[in-house]
Amino acid sequence: MIKFQNISKSYGHSIVLDDISFEIKQGEFVVLIGPSGCGKTTTLKTINRLIEPNKGKIFINGKDITKVNPVELRRTIGYVIQQIGLFPNMTVEQNIAVVPKLLKYPKPKWQEIVHNLLELVDMPYEEFAHKYPSELSGGQQQRIGVLRALAASPPIVLMDEPFGALDPITRDSLQEEVKHLQKKLKKTIVFVTHDMEEALRMADTIVFMNRGKIIQMASPEELLQNPADPIIKSFMGRHMENENNAPKLLAEDFMRTKVLKVPKTSHTLECIELMSRRDVNSLIVLNDDDTYAGTVTIEAIKAHGKAGREISELLSEDAVTIHRKEDARQAFDKLLASSSNYVIVLNDNRTVAGLITRTSMAKALGEALWGEMKS
Amino acid sequence: MNFLDFIAGNYIDIQLSLLRHIELVGISVLIGMMIAIPVGIFLSRHKRMSGPVLAVAGTIQTIPGLVMLGFALILFGIGRLPALVVLSLYAILPILHNTFTGITQVDQSYIEAGRGIGMTSRQILYKVELPLAMSSIISGIRISTVYIVSWSTLAGLIGAGGLGDLIWTGLSSYNSNYILAGAVPSAILAFAFSGLIGLLQRMLMPRGLRGVRV
Amino acid sequence: MINLWPLILEHMLIVVVATVISIALGVVLGVIAYWVRHVDTVIMWCAEAIQTIPSLALLAMLMIFFGLGNTTIIAGLVLYALLPIVRNTYTGLAGISHHIKDAARGMGMSKLQRLIKIELPLSFPLIFSGIKIAVVNSLSIAVMGVLIGAGGLGYPIYRGVQTRNLERILNGAIPVVLMALIFDYTMSKIEQRLIKRAR
């Protein structure tokens, strides 16, 4: 849909864009990101010819944009800027209708557009259409800014750090709304930000730029997993750290490893003796190859066991098991949901790695929060 | 003779002088606007020329009115024409200055937004810049008008007529009745113009701009 | 060619005397406007109203009270100079950051001490630019003194106008304009330095 072919731009000796080539697909949400001065805003502004590159060509739907009158071009591309730029001398309605009026839409048509768009963002026409920008909150103003860009239903919308000046809560809800609008209206959006979180949240594709070059163009997942350059890692610093700082706690982090295990071939009397000595009322039973076989409880032995018999007959497989690499949360959920006092943690080869009991869980949580606990 | 009696006795003269005065002010401010606003718009498009042009206009403003009237007198002789030339010249600067700064001080983001959504530069001028600069331009007209009411009294010196004539007569004959008959109406006229234009300014100001810095 | 120096000096003297008086009066009025609630609008309105009165009308009316001579033109110049000085004093004082004012109050300074030690020095750059405007205007308006019997450079100009003698007009006009430009230039330089230092 939008194709950059060897675009370069320099001011005097400073090179802002250095031979950039990439392509944006129809309906894609592309986020340009990078440290300040990396050329992301310049890249954006070359699309609607607010900045003309020195070299290279940009094609929109295969058409060289230098062959299109810039004013005509801009009327077919929505544009949202950080400073919002709603005209303060015009009402909300007049602001939204600016481009449709420039395009000489008849009055009923642009009025309908204003109605529909305001409805789309839950700002009732009766309440808001005749207000002036100065009478709106920052978030409302930028909503109108977005609507103004959408008014002539341009297939492409450019957004230059549109939420940079908003408070975090407003920003969150606007991000969601814009993402929603984009999907609903199937727009191609090119979005500039310096906020990685925003990029990860909004983008189908992230274009990471530095010093006028594209360092990596990838999906958010790909970028997180395989950052192509240390600078991307450092840019994502906060996110990577977040993952490390609050490391994913696994089941194995909460288990205790000293567990009473008996072979399937043990006899009932041995087991009862062991249980009473260690003051427990169940044992883990292993197969011959040390894999987990089940559990045996004191009740089962008392009810059905006969002296001198192997416990294999009394084996219960009801106990909850979990793999040691599973998320600790899942272990907790299972533990809390089950009637028993423990969850059995297994290794890859189904041998027993340990046991999570309510006590061990509490202890491990305490250690995670306050450090080493006295037992 | 007491002042009120004097006024009663010379009522028609005073009224004529007042009308003459209003005429002088009106014509020269109009001419000033017709020159200053287009030039101010032009300068805002060609900022490089604005420095020298505004400096020249500023220097003209520092030339004392008496001197300018003297020049005009020598160039054009006695009468209304030289007075109108001088007064129009004086009317230009404040309007020019305010038109220029009014337009150039419009926040860049509005202009970028305008360009970004596909306005031509003419559309940006008419739909964005001029409406936002309107308040500043009108306030320039207001300053100009108050000045010109003042300079017009001086123009009596070269036979332009108006309330200045009465003051001159009073000054040269030490007649305080004549002085007051010229001075008081001219002061009231200045207040009235200033107030009216201020009112106009407020009326023309779009609701969205009230209490907002542009 | 007549000797211009005495006229230039007299012109200067008139402007300087008028400026000194208007600074004293203007700063006091500015401080009162700043200190006393509601009085500020009255004072500013009056200063603006005086500025609106046509100069010839004001001078002629003053002449009725003060008679012919330098006193009248000085009184006129003082009245005209009030607005820029009062306005700038007031906005300067009112514009000082609350933190600074609170700090001064917290250190136990009285209202007068705060004014003299903190607030006036801080608003001096702005007051100075008010004075600049006043001086430059006064230099030009003082020419009109000749019409009410005062001296200065208005004299050759007026004689020139009366006799339609361009050279005579220029004899008076050139020094006046030059003085205005020189004062404007040098005082603007000082003003910039004051503002820079205040940062």
What does this 3D model show about the protein?
The complex is a heterotrimer of chains A (375), B (214) and C (199). By secondary structure, chain A is α/β, with parallel strands linked by helices. Chain A has helices spanning 40-47, 70-75, 92-96, 98-102, 107-120, 125-128, 138-150, 168-185, 196-202, 220-225, 230-235, 237-245, 268-278, 298-304, 328-337, 358-370, and strands at 2-11, 14-24, 29-33, 55-60, 63-64, 77-81, 156-160, 188-193, 205-210, 213-218, 261-263, 282-286, 292-297, 321-323, 342-346, 352-357. In chain A, strand 11 (261-263), helix 13 (268-278) and strand 12 form a beta-alpha-beta unit. In chain A, helix 7 packs parallel to helix 8. The longest helix of chain A has 18 residues, at 168-185. Chain B has one domain: MetI-like fold (Orthogonal Bundle), CATH 1.10.3720. The longest helix of chain B has 35 residues, at 11-45. Chain B is elongated. The N and C termini of chain C lie far apart (49 Å). Helix content of chain C is 83%, strand content 0%. Chain C is built from eight helices and no strands. In chain C, 45% of the residues are buried. Classes of the chains: A alpha/beta (375), B mainly alpha (214), C mainly alpha (199). At the A-B interface, helix 2, strand 6 and helix 4 of A face helix 6 and helix 7 of B.
